[in-house]
Structures are given as structure tokens and as C-alpha cells.
Amino acid sequence: MKILVYGTGGVGGYFGGRLAQAGHDVTFIARNESLKAIRENGLIVKSVNGDFTIKPAKATDDISEIESPDLVIFGLKSWQIKDAAKHLKSIITEETMVLPLQNGADNMEKLQEVLPKKNVLAGFCRIYSKKEAPGVINHFQFDPEIIFGELDNEKSKRVLKLKEIFNNSGFKGIVPDDVHKAIWKKFSFIATVSGLGGLTRVSIGKMWEDDYLQGILKKTGLEIQAIAQAKGVDFNDEDVAQLYQFIGNQGITATASTQRDIMAGRPSELGNFNGYIVEQGKKLGVDTPVNEFIYRALLPMEKEARRS
């Protein structure tokens, strides 16, 4: 399969590397030091499941060099996905599948503003990985998974074929019965802990140990549930209970990537998490006071990070 991976961070670098290792024709869109490093040294992946190097690895920053792909995997941040889709629009054919793996609940909606609906799949991933250095990916925990499906949850031939490809490439491909519910279940966790973690600057475990902060986390989750249900997603009380249990089971030192971005003064996915809940609340007539406070309190720092 001809695959284009947009982004060579912990997500795009790892999954693209595994697909290339399995023999697929993978091209990476990379820039600056990452592009230089991949061209000179290949793509280096350090993994708890076995280290490997893709050399030579196909990498470019020039769209005109890329043949139309069968599959595009987006390994960027949520707030970058729409511009990336515009960048690639000229090489997307009727048969191209476009799969977003970002955190967030509206990545498919963003893509459909730019690309035809039939090209877009819904999806996300589970992986603990990071870009250790330009061209070097470190997968340090968890057996990686890509969870994905058609927007209407049809078990189509292309989705089942893609699932087989993923399962034969060193990671799990999972097609759930309801991909939107699956997306919201992950989103509810990451959106709940990230913003408050950025404000308090302590780990998830320490927030959960504090009765007051645990109460704030729970209220944040309930507001997210209300938005999901208002949008027609089957995010029920059992899912909320599982969310709280999952948060409570996080290690005492665990932090979310967006929390770490906020604390480091880097541009973050704040607007795609708490900001998205606030925006949808206003649109749907659902009150979201806790998410709005977290979002508004962090917004000045986010604006400063983007300016710099």
C-alpha cells in the first residue's frame, strides 16, 4: 500500500515506521532538522517491542514529489490538521483514505471542511511515544493500537483491509462497533486531565488524591458527557464511571502530553479540548462552567505560546 504520513513525531514516526518495516511504500512529510536527519540517518525507532531503523526512508517537504497515496495518516496536533489537509488536497484522489490519529473529538469534522466526506475515516491511537531527537522516535510503553472506522460505522471492505494491514505491521488495528463512542471515551480522559493539570501543574495522581481537585475533574467529565450526548453520541453513565476509574488508576507521576505542553510554554491542544467543549456548549445550549473557567484561565498563556 502507498502510504503518506504527515508528521514524524511520536505518533507518525512510530506507526509510519512500522508500516515501512512491513514492506509498505511509506513517505514521510517532515521539515527542517527532522527532514535532514531522516535523509542522512534513516528513521530510527527505539521501542519496547524491538528497535529498528528504516534506511533509506522516504521523506520530503515538497508535495510535488509525492504520488497520490492510498492512505494518509495524520500525525500532527489537532489544531494543525485543517491546514495540513489543505496542503495535501491536490494529491488526494477519490480512492484515498484519510485517517486522523490526533487527540480530540472533531478531527473528522475539520477534515470534511476541506476534503470530500468519502475520503475521511474516523480514528485515534493509543501509544506512549515521543520524538527523542530529530529522526529518532522513542516508544517507551504500551502495545500500540489504531482504533478507526467509517464515519457511519460500516464494516466496509477498505476498513477491513486496513485493519488486516495494521495487524500485520507490528501493532493492533481495531474497528469498534461505534467509533464515535470510542473517540469520545478517549477524548473525555485527555480533555478532563489536561487542562486542570496545566493549571495545577501537578500529576494526575496528585490531583485525584486531593478531594477538591477530584471533584473538579469529575465535574469536567460530566460536562463532557453532556456535550457528547447533545451531539448524539452514546456516552452513558457507565462510560463516565469508567472514566473516573481510569483517572484514579493513573500513576502518581503520570501527566498528559497537553499538560506538559502547557507547562513548558509550548502551543497546546487546549482549544481542541476544553475550548471545544465550551464552544459546543454555547452552540448546543449546554452549560459548561468548569471547562470554561479552565479554558479561560489558560488562554492567555496559550496565546503567548503561539506568539512566540
UniProtKB/TrEMBL annotation:
Protein's UniProt keywords contain Oxidoreductase: yes
Any GO molecular function: 2-dehydropantoate 2-reductase activity
Domain Ketopantoate reductase N-terminal: 3-152
Catalytic activity reported: (R)-pantoate + NADP(+) = 2-dehydropantoate + NADPH + H(+)
Organism of derivation: Zunongwangia mangrovi
GO biological processes: pantothenate biosynthetic process
Pathway membership: Cofactor biosynthesis; (R)-pantothenate biosynthesis; (R)-pantoate from 3-methyl-2-oxobutanoate: step 2/2
Residue ranges of domain Ketopantoate reductase C-terminal in the record: 178-299
InterPro entries assigned to the protein according to its UniProt record, in alphabetical order: 6-PGluconate_DH-like_C_sf, 6PGD_dom2, ApbA, KPA_reductase, KPR-Related, KPR_N, NAD(P)-bd_dom_sf
Name the UniProt record assigns to this protein: 2-dehydropantoate 2-reductase
Gene3D superfamilies for this protein: N-(1-d-carboxylethyl)-l-norvaline Dehydrogenase, domain 2, NAD(P)-binding Rossmann-like Domain
Keywords: NADP, Oxidoreductase, Pantothenate biosynthesis
EC category: oxidoreductase
PANTHER family per record: 2-DEHYDROPANTOATE 2-REDUCTASE (PTHR21708:SF26), PROBABLE 2-DEHYDROPANTOATE 2-REDUCTASE (PTHR21708)
